[in-house]
Amino acid sequence: MRNLLLLGDEAIAQAALDAGLSGMYAYPGTPSTEIMEYIQSSAQAAERNVHREWSANEKTAMEAALGMSYCGKRAMVAMKHVGLNVAADAFINSAMTGVNGGLVVVSADDPSMHSSQNEQDSRFYAKFANVPCMEPSNQQEAYEMIFDAFELSEKYKLPVLFRITTRLAHSRASVSLKGQIPEKKLSLPADPVQFVLLPSIARKKYKYLIEAYEKLKYEIRLSKYNSFKDGPKRDMGIIACGIAHNYLLENIGLNNHEYPVLKISSYPFPKDLIKDITGRCKSVLVLEEGAPLVEESLRGILDDGIKVFGRMDGNVPRDGELNPSIVAKSLGMETSYGKEVPALVKNRPPSFCKGCGHSDVFNALIEALKSYESGSVFSDIGCYTLGALPPYNSINACVDMGASVTMAVGAADAGLFPSVSVIGDSTFTHSGMTGLLDAVIKGSPVTIIISDNSTTGMTGGQESHATGRLDQICRGLGVDEKHIRIITPLRKNHEENVHVIKEEFEFRGVSVIIAQRECIQTATKKKRAESSNR
Amino acid sequence: MKTDIIISGVGGQGILSIAATIGLAAVANNLYLKQSEVHGMSQRGGDVQSHFRLSDTPIASDLIPFGKADLIISVEPMESLRYLPWLSKEGWIVTNSVPMINIPDYPPLDDIISEIKKIRNHLIIDADSIAKDAGSSKAGNIVILGAASPFIQMPYNSLEDAIRKLFGKKGEEIVNINLKALKAGREVSGK
Prior knowledge:
By secondary structure, chain A is α/β, with parallel strands linked by helices. Chain A has 21 helices and 19 strands. Chain B has one domain: Pyruvate-ferredoxin oxidoreductase, PFOR, domain III (Pyruvate-ferredoxin Oxidoreductase, domain 3).
């Protein structure tokens, strides 16, 4: 068998290809981006012509994947955890319609918020939607699980939520590959109304979904990833979910013979296995990456059953990602520690690259705002969020993809002037366009600066759907062309750009300023590629 | 046998190339490895680190526990200090002496160097000028790897093979510069 050194993300991508994937759909988002990138650079995917283009956002990705599944082919969609919020409507309803070809939804959570606005736990979404959830503990398991996820999806006609966290996504290990399964042929659903969620049909489908979810509790494909290993200790047993199991084994040893340990890597909860552990131990320690999902259920509302230790009683920190040292402490084991970080070590936050166009945008905007007493800048998700840090300190909001436009609209409704939005090009086509339409319809006095670097920069420079069409999009949505201004954010244009921004502040309607200059990183990469091709 | 390494630096300094080189060598030596990387926002000039674990037996955790790292390999002096909580009592620091100053409050370099010298096992080298002598100022990361190589329990020639593999696509010249950089680093560490 072939072995490859793969990131968790790459193991998932390779597995999907080997399992006969026909379509991969995604919008870039840390820590999920490398799944699509791997498939895009895979010769195997190119040879089979697997669909592998970025989508405008996670919702369009999810829906396109559902369309692929409708045709009987295997599809995968990948996103970061907050992307699942964007795709939630499609995701929840895909449980109602069910699937035809296997559909795996990968959601990559980011506990400790290394590169995110929150640390929501995607496992709750699976429970909410009544679909199975799989949570691999290591790269090899991630690879193998994907095959089972597709088969499970086809057996129950349900999407499967595949939950990973940052550490697995971005950690490399050797993965041993299995043989390839051929792609499925196009075959439409046997039931012509399977995907028609008219209330009368949806009511029937929901009853099926409830039944299926009950049956899933005994499904062998899920339970093979949940395992109970007994040990002589009776004062405390341990439940460890997903990657938490690795941190546990780091402390108690790969061949633990001491604690009774239940590893949970798939959901719904394996009730019988949980009984095995609660039946023989006086207390249970629950280790899970993310929110206390298993722990809270185990405690119940009254919390008067078996004694439970975990995140909710402070035995494990309530927030943030786990690590082997935290787990050691929760086990009451002695922990080692090197030396404290010397006080002279300063924080080194991320910053704009040297020569980045965003910094010229902020410099001009800061100066334009100087002559106004009030005024706020609503920003968005991307590299330009770094405008929040010194020396700029110039944004007042960063909430979710597209919120800069609509928050500026709401603030203008409240009487704020100037009400400014700063959004990137890729974020604009992800979720800013609909908000701009709201602004146009209402004639909101807002100034929207699209800082267009013609790429999805923060996640490493994926292509942006907006490239070359922002002007057209804004006109098409109804922005008056006199108030679509295109500027080049360069230091030499500073005075002129300040002037344009001020002019548009003074126009009491919708203005869009497109500040267009290519990302310095992608520009350098392109140059390098060109010179090496010569 | 196990070697737990923290590789540190600033986003863009090439710590992933160090990790990739050790990774290829580890695979060639049939060792188990886990290598955790930082992607995303911090890559924009922020502090970045990689936990690299090598062993001849299976490895459970992707992260190194506090106080258990055998080695800190740092491409930047202040960054070598950021990971002291992970360094074991007998552990080594191998670091570049050339600072990357991209923050306004960067501490005086002499203070940083004297903090590093408080760690019993340290090796501080001017990787940038050694790399320049080898043919490219960009190969400082590989110089540091060369200097750290005696502390990584793998035959030296497997690191050379890994460099040939990793940089092979970029042409013979780049391969040779990096091999020279590796060797120059190795010689500085005097082993």
